[in-house]
Amino acid sequence: MKEKQDAALVFDLDGTLIDSVYQHVMAWDEAIRKAGMELSIWRIHRRIGMSGGLFVRALGRELGRELDASVVAQLQRDHEEAYLRTVDGVVPLPGARELLATLTSAGVPWAIATSGAHYPAQRSMRALNVPESVPLITRDEVTRAKPNPDLFLAAISALGVSARETFVVGDSLWDMLGARRAGALGVGVLSGGYGRTELVEGGGAYRVYDDPLDLLRHLDELGVRIATW
Length: 229
Hints:
- By secondary structure, the protein is α/β, with parallel strands linked by helices.
- It folds into two domains: 8-20 and 91-222, Rossmann fold (3-Layer(aba) Sandwich); 21-88, DNA polymerase, domain 1, CATH 1.10.150.
- Helix content is 43%, strand content 10%.
- The chain has a six-stranded parallel sheet with strand order 3-2-1-4-5-6, sandwiched between helices.
- Strand 5, helix 9 and strand 6 (207-209) form a beta-alpha-beta unit.
- The radius of gyration is 17 Å and the shape is globular.
- The chain starts with 7 loop residues before the first strand and ends in a 12-residue tail after the last helix.
């Protein structure tokens, strides 16, 4: 008999469950160069996890110029096209499959909420063996993506739980800010390239772990009870 759980988890996807951050970085780099612009790779990485629209607006600020709507739309299309050429080579992060399977077995509600579009997200999730019953909330389904809380609030609603019993697991500052605004506790992982100090001091993360495997080993710190621990 499964023990009743009083915790739920909402996961970001890229850099949290799958090792895809740098594929997104290079896809944005390709799209930006195709548009005749240049931006240092590290500046692109710092924006991964934001919605595509906010990313492009930030790009305009970095470049010191305003980008019109047609340029913004083209950049987003070119990024998605470039990413889709690499998505079949994206692999789960260490422990990701095991973590999700353990939560499912223990009866812990969980969902995925990503700033990415639905089709690329579905392609990325094949390697995770995600059951069809698990809610997937993507950028297409909400008004505003991260750092706004809309994605996480939609996932929490889909799970039928409250924000106060939910942990949002993500790799970026934008995940932690979105979690705080949703009224949930943020849990950071270092597998997307952000540092521990920034996730805690800048984003207010409750805990920070190396990757999904490290989180799996410390589920008890989130109040998740595994009968066969």
